[in-house]
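Hello Y.,

Per our agreement to keep a running log of every chain we model this quarter, I'm adding this entry. I've kept the format consistent with earlier entries: sequence first, then predicted structure.
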Amino acid sequence: MLSLFILPSGRENANPEKTFKSLHGLVKRVKFVSSIDSINLYRKSTDWYGVLYDNEYVDADLKVGIEMAFQFPVVDFFVLCKRDIGKDLMSVFTKCPRLFRKHVLLQENTLLPLQLGLKAGLIAEGLIMSYDK
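Predicted structure for the entry above:
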């Protein structure tokens, strides 16, 4: 189980309900936050927390990958792959940390961990999907 923090994207197609529902069964608590910096201020009630924007959702393959990844206790955070489909229907693929153990703090204005020496993992199954309409 994880706590999910949802950030505003500022996009017309924002759909926080779709964001939340894409992780159905994995999320214990949802918190809408105005900025990345505010995430560090909240106590995490679960062992893991995730960060998504309100115009993103997790595809079915990534959801299964996340469930499996939580079984690896030596990792402090996971990097996920994202596919962003632009207005011109061109896709851009990126990778970014999105799932963190509750002790991990985030650097100011980024999704990078503040602490040094943390162990990272990559979940290569599935994608975070985002559409810019």
